[in-house]
């Protein structure tokens, strides 16, 4: 049985991914701070395939505790999914040092340290998936520390691919656009937010946990064996377009081009 560590597994994308991997027969070690949230995993992962660890990933000893538990329980690590994160980013001029340090600690330092601890236990055929964001790829308004951390993950991903690919260990990133999860649920109460996404997304619906979890599960599967060092963007084309506002679509100049 393959073994996956999923951080931020008690909700949203992490929970959806745990369900997908468990259905494929993969054991899951789910990590997050809140034990009640992690208890959601009981509904989607069979007990013999499940372990959980409530821990704050910014703690110095967290990565070692996570890896030790996986190795004690199953003796191997095949998949590491660095997914835990926090939203509500601020622009640079509103970001104090404490916020900057916390965001980088959770979304860049912790993934780096988890990878470092996991590598000695990973065999050929193993995979690391880093959950980044379109905010690492396009200039996200209010991005600040969040964009910096998520872009750092992409650098880590390409380094990993080159350095450990020869050992048969792959590393890829997934960059979701706006996905309806607990992280974004407040935003979905705003008509302006919904309208903005509608206007900026070529594909005619917003993203779901299922969209991202399916992509992660594919990257973990044998079918993705030759995919290494890539970032798969899951955003309905949000980051690929230039002209999708009502104004853009109806403007004479764009219309003349089409
Ligand atoms: P979510 O449901 O809020 O999930 C985030 C998870 O991270 C939670 O389960 C949370 O669990 C865990 N977490 C937060 N701080 C932690 C800490 N210090 N230590 C350990 N665990 C911690 O949101 P989501 O949308 O699924 O987010 C998953 C990932 O996707 C994030 O990295 C996010 O940046 C990325 N992403 C999301 C979107 C989107 O639109 N939703 C878009 C782009 C990228 P606890 O509270 O129990 O710790």
**Total beta strands:** 7
The distinct ligands, each listed once, are:
NADP nicotinamide-adenine-dinucleotide phosphate
Q: What's the helix count?
A: 9
For the largest beta sheet, what order do the strands appear in spatially? 3-2-1-4-5-6-7
What is the CA-CA span between the terminal residues? 52 Å
What portion of residues belong to β-strands?
5-15%
| Rg result | 19 Å
Largest sheet: 7 strands, parallel
Q: What helical percentage do the residues reach? A: 40-55%
Mean of residue pLDDT? Answer: 94
Broad structural category: alpha/beta
Keywords summarizing the entry:
9 helices, 14% strand, binds NADP nicotinamide-adenine-dinucleotide phosphate
Description:
The chain is α/β, with parallel strands linked by helices. It is built from nine helices and seven strands, in the order βαβαβαβαβαβααβαα. Strands 3-2-1-4-5-6-7 form a seven-stranded parallel beta sheet, with helices on both faces. The site of NADP nicotinamide-adenine-dinucleotide phosphate has 28 residues, from helix 1. NADP nicotinamide-adenine-dinucleotide phosphate (NAP) binds next to helix 1.
Summarize the structure.
The chain has 258 residues and is α/β, with parallel strands linked by helices. It contains nine helices and seven strands, in the order βαβαβαβαβαβααβαα.
Architecture blueprint of SSEs:
Elements: E1 3-7, H1 12-23, E2 27-32, H2 35-38, E3 50-54, H3 62-74, E4 79-82, H4 97-118, E5 127-131, H5 144-164, E6 170-176, H6 191-200, H7 209-220, E7 231-234, H8 246-250, H9 252-257
Bound molecules: NADP nicotinamide-adenine-dinucleotide phosphate.
NADP nicotinamide-adenine-dinucleotide phosphate is lined by residues 7-8, 10-14, 32-34, 37, 56-58, 83-86, 106, 131, 133, 176, 178-179, 181-184.
């Amino acid at each position: 049985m393959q073994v996956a560590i999923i951080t931020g597994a008690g909700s949203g994308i992490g929970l959806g991914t745990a369900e997908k991997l468990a259905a494929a027969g993969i054991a899951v070690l789910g990590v997050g701070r809140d034990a009640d949230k992690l208890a959601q995993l009981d509904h989607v992962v069979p007990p013999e395939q499940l372990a959980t660890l409530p821990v704050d990933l910014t703690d110095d000893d967290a990565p070692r505790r996570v890896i030790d538990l996986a190795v004690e329980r199953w003796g191997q690590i095949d998949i590491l999914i660095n997914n835990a994160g926090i939203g509500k980013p601020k622009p640079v001029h509103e970001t104090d040092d404490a916020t900057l340090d916390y965001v980088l600690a959770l979304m860049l330092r912790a993934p780096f340290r988890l990878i470092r601890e996991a590598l000695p236990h990973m065999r050929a055929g193993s995979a690391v998936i880093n959950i980044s964001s379109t905010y690492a790829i396009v200039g996200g308004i209010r991005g600040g520390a969040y964009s910096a951390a998520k872009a750092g993950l992409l650098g880590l991903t390409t380094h990993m691919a080159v350095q450990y690919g020869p050992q048969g260990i792959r590393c890829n990133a997934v960059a979701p656009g706006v996905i309806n999860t607990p992280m974004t649920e407040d935003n979905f109460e705003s008509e302006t937010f919904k309208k903005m996404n509608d206007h900026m997304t070529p594909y005619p619906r917003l993203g779901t946990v299922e969209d991202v979890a399916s992509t992660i599960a594919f990257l973990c599967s044998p079918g993705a064996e030759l995919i290494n060092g890539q970032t798969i963007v899951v955003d309905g084309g949000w980051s690929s377009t230039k002209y999708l506002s009502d104004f853009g679509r109806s403007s004479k100049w764009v219309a003349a081009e089409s």
